Amino acid sequence: MEILLRPVSTLAPSLISDLISDLDAISPWSFTLGPPIQNLNHAYLPDRGQFDADGILVHLLNEINDQGKVIGLIDVDLCTPVLSFVFGRAQLGGRVAVVSTFRLDNRFYRLKPDPGLLIERLKKEIIHEAGHLGGLYHCRNRWCVMNASASIVNIDLKGFKFCPACLNYLKERGNNGP
Amino acid sequence: MDRRSKILVADDEEIMRRSLTDWLEEEGYSVHAVPNGQSAIEALAREDWDAFLLDLKMPDLDGIEVLKITKKKNPQLPVIIITAYATVESAVEAMKEGAYDYIVKPFNPEEVSLILHRIVEHQRLIKENISLRKRLAREIFFEDIITKDKRMKKVIEMVKTVAKTNSTVLIYGESGTGKELIARAIHNTSPRKDHPFVAISCGALPETLLEAELFGYEKGAFTGATTQTKGKLELAHHGTLFLDDIADISPKTQVDLLRVLQEREFRRLGGTKTIRIDVRFVAATNRDLEAEVKKGRFREDLYYRLKVITIKLPPLRERKDDIPHLVDHFIEKFNTEMGKRILRVSAETMQILLSHNWPGNVRELENVIEHAMVVCDQEIIEPKHLPEDLTKKAPPLKTLKEVEREHIESVLKACHWKISPAARILGLNRTTLYNKIKAYGLKPM
Lengths: 178, 445
Ligand SMILES: Nc1ncnc2c1ncn2[C@@H]1O[C@H](COP(=O)(O)OP(=O)(O)OP(=O)(O)O)[C@@H](O)[C@H]1O
Ligand SMILES: [Zn+2]
Ligand SMILES: [Zn+2]
Hints:
A: alpha/beta; five-stranded mixed β-sheet; three-stranded mixed β-sheet; 5 helices; B: alpha/beta; Rossmann fold; Helicase, Ruva Protein, domain 3; five-stranded parallel β-sheet; 47% helix; binds adenosine-5'-triphosphate; binds zinc ion
């Protein structure tokens, strides 16, 4: 399965190219770079000072054309109507997802910036959202990439890998790549 | 996995229902959402649920009314109140009516998933009839040793197999790494489990006192020996004797102990009768015993007697992945002991815990969490709750590059980002300075 990554233009291109080659190597999918996301204004929620993750998904869905799936990469603070923040969001078993670097960046926690760590976290969250696109729920296994990442510590703890149960589910659904 | 837990949601706003359902399904729950109080009551009558998320503000039936009806019909069902900031008082009201908890819109995902997780876990325990009592029992088994670390797991696997034998075990590990815990687990897994586990700290006592403690004494054996007293060796008969800080015992006690290990018999201080004992020995030290032997401070023959089976416990700083698990474990432990309801540590706090060096290992971590829980008056432990020496720690050691970057930045700032004077101060030419500014991504702020 092909997944198109669509970054906002404010994310460094070097970060994105490193990301794509790594993702290809460590995930069951093949990732390619798509056109940048032009504008997020439509999803801005002035009263919360955040961006509506579902609004961004709708936007990505409107612009999708071929058979593949799309994951948007953005750098602003994401939320949903019920949640005060999310690291990312996906249509369960659907075609579009979004991940933000905003809360993956050490600077958000007033810690020293760590670009390497940021990429690690980003990779995990992209694979995690791709797992949702593949139909996976959250997994109780703390080391599985599908473990609910409600805090940055959980993200740092878990790995890039799917646990055997999750991997099996993906395989049964023909999600194990080309 | 077990059956997916079923959650009923009642909220009049369509967008909230949809968003909440999406998220809870992602979390692995099976969700049914209804728009008003009447349909909630019908759903409650029709099916069994594991949790009920109830919005207080609904058009037909008031949320408090729905809560009262629910609690009457199904007192066991945990009801979580959904509220907006403006109406937190009514949520507190609802708690008095028996609501399990309340959550304020928009929810912190971590908090809500923890609340739900706790509910589900609690119901699982009820179903499986595992009493809290049993889980908190004093006895330590290998299952009670919290670790995800490969080396620790290997150690535990190894010790499990030898626990059943009578072999002497020598445990190496820094202070607070869990040496006594392992010793207890060995005892409780061995055929000796119904007999005493006796521990003695050899480092804490001067020679004569240690000998008195170990071997016991007859009345009048020394000044102050007013009654006949049994020593730890006798008390541990048929059981296990744990000798902590074994490297610290004096040359004389080493000889006496060696004799016990060889002959399995001894005499009380001042006594004439030989006492035979059946004891399994587990010894522990935080020093390199072999080096002590080489330096002539520890008897080689005793060393060989003790080291039949040797295990090494890695210090906590070499298994930092264990920290989050241990933190959870201690929070649960002290919640029960102190009757508190602390959920977890914040991300920032965890970062501090993960970057600390833990010279006192797990015991130090346990003390830190205990301290934090005593002073913490909220559900989440923040850095301000930690002991001062943890948050005020020395700055991390920097690489040359980091120092160079910071130095260049400070000189640039001092020169108001004028390149020529900054280059002069730094002893660089302008091009080199430009290149460094670019390489380090420095920008005037
Ligand atoms: N893996 C673990 N899981 C849970 N609790 C632990 C673990 N390791 C240590 N502890 C706890 O940490 C504390 C210190 O452990 P213990 O007394 O066994 O250490 P020790 O190595 O014998 O220390 P010392 O050498 O200073 O006597 C105890 O309260 C123990 O219950
Ligand atoms: Zn997820
Ligand atoms: Zn999994």
